[in-house]
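Support request from a user on the community tier.

User writes: "When I paste my structure tokens into the form, the page sometimes reloads and wipes my input. The last time it worked, I copied everything first. Here is what I submitted, just in case something in the input itself triggers the reload:"
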């Protein structure tokens, strides 16, 4: 028999009444009722209430033991009286009367409580993460994460995919973020890079003839943290398929994505097939390529309403080729004037001059802008923006990309203020037909807008297009509730097309061969048409749990400064290690104030 337990703390039921059992776990809570001492004993599986009478010989030991000490109890299972049944616990119909008690590991005074789950500062929670993980909510979060990972593997294997592991020590690639670099002891002056994604390797797996690959892959990026992005590392479902077109990949991933949400949440999930919106369409209607479709508001371009009008602020924008976007606010005319003024202040906080507005009520248009438009222009506005009596409308104007960005943020803010966000739904949508290139204002040059290894729509011939910003790629994103879950593309498997695609953003042929020689070499020996996608599993778990911060779904996350307060990473190294790695350290200069 096991020396520590006959049952777990989540296992006992009325069927065990009268049995003598042994349990081991952590002291979750103690309650002294004078002649009786109640102990809630907790392990991974649950909580069992144990009872000790005050005249017991082990009472002084249990009385002094601190919370979170690890103990073992032996005793008889008894039925609770009707008025003491705890229906919130699976074990709540029984309790264990302690006859033997042993302390297996005494806990020091706690730096933070486990019972009660009070809010505590991040630095304490991460420094004592092992305590934080004992708390019920976080513990359950990690178990759901484990369930999701297991579900993903089963689903992919069922679809005929095979899991293969790719290297962690590799070379740098242009994935759009900084690499984590690892110095090579055996190759002085040379560095490995931790993979931002297994991009090149999974393409090589296709060239090697394995047809359908997947991996729950660790990825490393030296990025600044955000609420939905962990600094340093994250995990993704990495997928690649051979002899496929875009629809084949979307159709393969849809059931996996749908079932992840449907099987692990009570919320409704977008039925398959998921909607597909082009990048141009979503930027116009939602002002972002990550639209939250739970908000029933669509943006419209209404520049023609103001062209040649007396409202110079907007008419001059239209005259210069800019955009005027209308963001409806359904039913907002019943709101006080302060609602519209606060929206204007919100826009100013976002760095914009403000948000113009009109309110339609009782057959009349109200607001400063309404006075500058005649009846025909107002009627055209209502037609273009889908407005009705009782609605309000806000405007964002300027260069098309700036107007779209502000309108997109305003749409979400309006939806939140009008309580239009349906929290009972997971709304999934594909964004397709991304432009291959974008203009980098900082560098004043053309750059890739998405994955640099993507196949342009139309192949090599399309890259001769006079306006490079009009070239589309076979690229796609999966978005849920305004959060990007994953990105993918049909890959560029033709060497000449790849050379040309990189040449347009300033990479000469020699540099492409230097950086991606292994991939190009493989393409010269028979490469199948192939494509894939990667889904961020951390973000999926975060959405399923309704957590606002990704830290709550990662076992041992870094803090906002990309540090591990628990184990002390990153840490300094000894001088001998510098010499061994052929490195020297020069501290950055401090700026005098």
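"...and here is what came back when it finally went through:"
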């Amino acid at each position: 028999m096991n020396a520590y337990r006959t049952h777990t703390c989540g296992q006992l039921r009325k069927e065990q009444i009268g049995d003598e059992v042994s349990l081991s776990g952590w002291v979750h809570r103690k309650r002294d009722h004078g002649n009786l001492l109640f102990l809630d004993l907790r392990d991974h599986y649950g909580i069992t209430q144990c009872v000790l009478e005050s005249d017991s010989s082990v009472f002084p030991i249990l009385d002094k033991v601190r919370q979170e000490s690890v103990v073992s109890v032996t005793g008889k299972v008894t039925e609770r009286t009707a008025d003491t049944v705890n229906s919130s616990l699976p074990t709540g119909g029984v309790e264990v009367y302690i006859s033997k008690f042993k302390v297996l590991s005494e806990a020091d005074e706690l730096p933070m409580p486990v019972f009660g789950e009070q809010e505590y500062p991040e630095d304490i929670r991460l420094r004592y993460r092992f305590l934080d993980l004992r708390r019920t909510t976080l513990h359950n979060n990690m178990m759901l994460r484990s369930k999701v990972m297991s579900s993903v593997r089963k689903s992919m294997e069922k679809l005929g995919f095979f899991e293969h592991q790719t290297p962690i020590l590799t070379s740098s690639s242009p994935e759009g973020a900084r690499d984590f670099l690892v110095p090579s002891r055996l190759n002085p002056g040379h560095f490995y890079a931790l993979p931002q994604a297994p991009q090149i390797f999974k393409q090589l797996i296709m060239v090697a003839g394995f047809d359908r690959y997947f991996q729950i892959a660790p990825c490393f990026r030296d990025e600044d943290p955000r609420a939905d992005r962990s600094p340093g590392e994250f995990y993704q479902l990495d997928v690649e398929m051979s002899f496929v077109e875009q629809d084949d990949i979307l159709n393969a991933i849809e059931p996996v994505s749908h079932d992840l949400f449907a099987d692990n949440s009570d919320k409704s999930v977008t039925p398959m097939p998921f909607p597909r919106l082009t990048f141009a369409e979503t930027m116009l209607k939602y002002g972002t390529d990550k639209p939250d479709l739970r908000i029933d508001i669509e943006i419209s371009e209404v520049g023609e309403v103001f062209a040649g009008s007396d409202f110079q602020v907007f008419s001059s924008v239209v005259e210069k080729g800019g955009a005027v976007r209308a963001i409806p606010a359904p039913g907002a005319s019943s709101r006080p004037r302060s609602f519209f003024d606060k929206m204007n202040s919100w826009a100013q906080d976002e760095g914009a001059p403000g948000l113009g507005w009109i309110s339609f009520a009782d057959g009349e248009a109200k607001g400063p802008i309404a006075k500058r438009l005649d009846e025909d222009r107002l009627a055209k506005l209502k037609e273009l923006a889908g407005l009705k009596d009782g609605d309000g409308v806000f405007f964002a104007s300027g260069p098309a990309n700036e107007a779209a960005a502000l309108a997109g943020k305003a749409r979400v803010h309006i939806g939140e203020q009008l309580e239009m966000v349906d929290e009972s739904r997971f709304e999934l949508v594909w964004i397709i037909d991304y432009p291959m290139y974008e203009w980098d204002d900082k560098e004043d040059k053309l750059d890739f807008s998405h994955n640099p290894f993507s196949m342009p729509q139309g192949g090599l011939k399309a890259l001769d297009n006079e306006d490079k910003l009009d070239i589309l790629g076979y690229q796609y994103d999966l978005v849920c509730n305004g959060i990007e879950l994953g990105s993918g593309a049909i890959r560029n498997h033709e060497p000449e097309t790849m050379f040309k695609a990189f040449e347009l953003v300033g990479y000469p042929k020699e540099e492409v061969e230097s950086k991606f020689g292994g991939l190009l070499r493989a393409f010269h020996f028979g490469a199948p048409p192939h494509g894939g996608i990667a889904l961020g599993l951390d973000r999926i778990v975060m959405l399923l749990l309704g957590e606002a911060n990704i830290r709550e779904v990662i076992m041992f996350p870094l803090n906002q400064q990309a540090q591990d307060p628990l184990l002390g990473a990153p840490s300094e190294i000894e001088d001998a290690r510098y010499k061994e790695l052929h490195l020297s350290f020069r501290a950055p200069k401090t700026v005098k104030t």
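Agent notes: The reload is a front-end session timeout and is unrelated to the input. The longest strand covers residues 20-32. The longest helix spans residues 136-158. Escalated to web team.
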